[in-house]
């Protein structure tokens, strides 16, 4: 109703289905992790990734897809990426940095904004409609509520959100309208099939 009345920004949904998320991952017999431990011989599914099993190639694929979208649309569109936890956010920031080597020399193009990142002071800059940097904020839960991101144009979900309340709060990061900053709509990039979680309605 808020969208129809013009008080909230409408959105479009980009549902990203990575091959590894569709097919899962099964280690070959005797395959070991980076710590030398033998991986359990079973099929790992999307719900396991970045919780039970970390697959660097998947993180790089997500970072590449988000970066490509910004390159195709607006590289300076304020973007929030929600990760499973803080270590996942750290890995995502590194992957994003590698995908945007031409811009990371600019001050704080990508910032990890989590409770232990030491970059929480950048939160004010990110939420300031007239402050261009940082452009991409990588977080886990710190920015899911109580943050007024008026010019956020992209909300990327690389974590499973099991709470309807939190789901609405996260999507709410992009619903503000700022005509003077050319913020009239936003995009949702969903890497975790949140639109199909039981109890949550589809976006459309």
Summarize the structure in words.
The protein has 204 residues and is α/β, with parallel strands linked by helices. It is built from five helices and six strands. Strands 1-6-5-2-4-3 form a six-stranded parallel β-sheet. α2 crosses α3 (86-99). The mean pLDDT is 90.
Can you tell me the residue ranges where pLDDT is under 50 for at least 5 consecutive residues? none
Q: What is the total tally of β strands?
A: 6
- Per DSSP, the total helix count is 5
Mean pLDDT: 90
Strand content: 5-15%
Q: Reading side by side through the largest sheet, how are the strands ordered?
A: 1-6-5-2-4-3
- Gyration radius from CA atoms, angstroms: 17 Å
* Secondary-structure-derived class: alpha/beta
Largest sheet: 6 strands, parallel
Q: Helix and strand succession?
A: EHHEHEHEEHE
Give the end-to-end Cα distance, rounded to a whole number of Å: 14 Å
Helix content bin: 10-25%
Described by the principal axes of the CA atoms, the overall outline is globular
Outline:
The protein has helices spanning 19-23, 56-72, 86-99, 122-127, 164-171; strands spanning 11-15, 78-83, 110-112, 136-139, 152-158, 186-190. With 204 residues, the protein is of the alpha/beta class. Strand 5 (152-158), helix 5 (164-171) and strand 6 form a beta-alpha-beta unit.
């Amino acid at each position: 109703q808020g969208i129809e009345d013009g008080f909230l920004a409408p959105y479009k949904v980009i549902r990203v289905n990575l091959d590894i998320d569709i097919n899962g991952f099964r280690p070959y017999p005797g395959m070991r992790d980076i710590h030398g431990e033998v991986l359990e011989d079973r099929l790992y599914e999307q719900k396991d990734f970045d919780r039970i099993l970390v697959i660097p190639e998947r993180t790089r694929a997500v970072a590449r897809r988000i970066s490509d979208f910004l390159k195709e649309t607006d590289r300076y569109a304020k973007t929030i990426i929600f990760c499973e936890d803080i270590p996942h956010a750290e890995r995502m920031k590194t992957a994003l940095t590698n995908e945007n080597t031409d811009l990371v020399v600019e001050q704080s193009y990508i910032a990890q904004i989590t409770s232990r990142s030491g970059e929480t002071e950048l939160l004010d800059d990110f939420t300031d409609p007239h402050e261009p940097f940082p452009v991409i904020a990588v977080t886990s839960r710190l920015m899911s509520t109580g943050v007024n991101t008026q010019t956020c144009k992209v909300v990327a979900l690389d974590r499973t959100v099991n709470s309807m309340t939190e789901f609405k709060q996260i999507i709410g990061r992009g619903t503000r309208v700022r005509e003077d900053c050319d913020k009239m709509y936003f995009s949702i990039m969903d890497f975790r099939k949140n639109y199909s979680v039981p109890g949550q309605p589809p976006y459309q």
